[in-house]
Design brief:
Number of domains: 2
Number of strands: 8
Structural class: alpha/beta
CATH topology of the largest domain: Glutaredoxin
Number of helices: 6
Shape: globular
CATH class of the largest domain: Alpha Beta
Largest sheet: 6 strands, mixed
CATH architecture of the largest domain: 3-Layer(aba) Sandwich
Radius of gyration: 21 Å
Strand order of the largest sheet: 1-8-7-4-5-6
Mean pLDDT: 82
Amino acid sequence: MLRSRLLPTVALAAVFGLALTACAPDPVAQQYLEGDDKGYISASGAVVEIAPEDRGDPVEFAGVTEDGEEFSSADIAGDVTVVNFWYAACAPCRVEAEDLENVWQEYSDEGVSFVGINIYDQADTAKAFAETYGVTYPSLIDVDSGEAKLAFAKDAPIQGTPSTLVLDKQGRVAARIVGPLDGPSILSTLVGDALAESV
């Protein structure tokens, strides 16, 4: 009789334990189980600004764009640069595309460059994304080599996608936004602040 009373209690405890495990804050495991946006980790647009005296060395990076053109950070030396890590199946990347493009258009004539780094897709997918979402700045296709992402590993390791970096005029990481943009205003302010700095 005692055993018959304990069995439902044990079963209930097991189910409760599984429920707690399922609610544990492990976004990568949850994405794997759901099969959606694998590799995307939301950080709710966490913003980190880095004071000039605390910045690392200039980041030198290069690659080939979705249009097959060679790109090097030396091509945009002296510009404030926004670098966005993304891929086409990442839902937050699709949502923030318009905000990134709006800030690019706002500053495109003021010594600012925008470069995407696509970490998963081939060129055709990246081009289709750009056409669909109206993105006019280039992206490097980094899926095969990982060289562009690796170039930032020391000063700004990319822990989730999307991630956006603002590089100062010397090419140093001045700010990073981990997770999707929450509208264009914060990025616009960060770019404006970097532009206002003396070299």
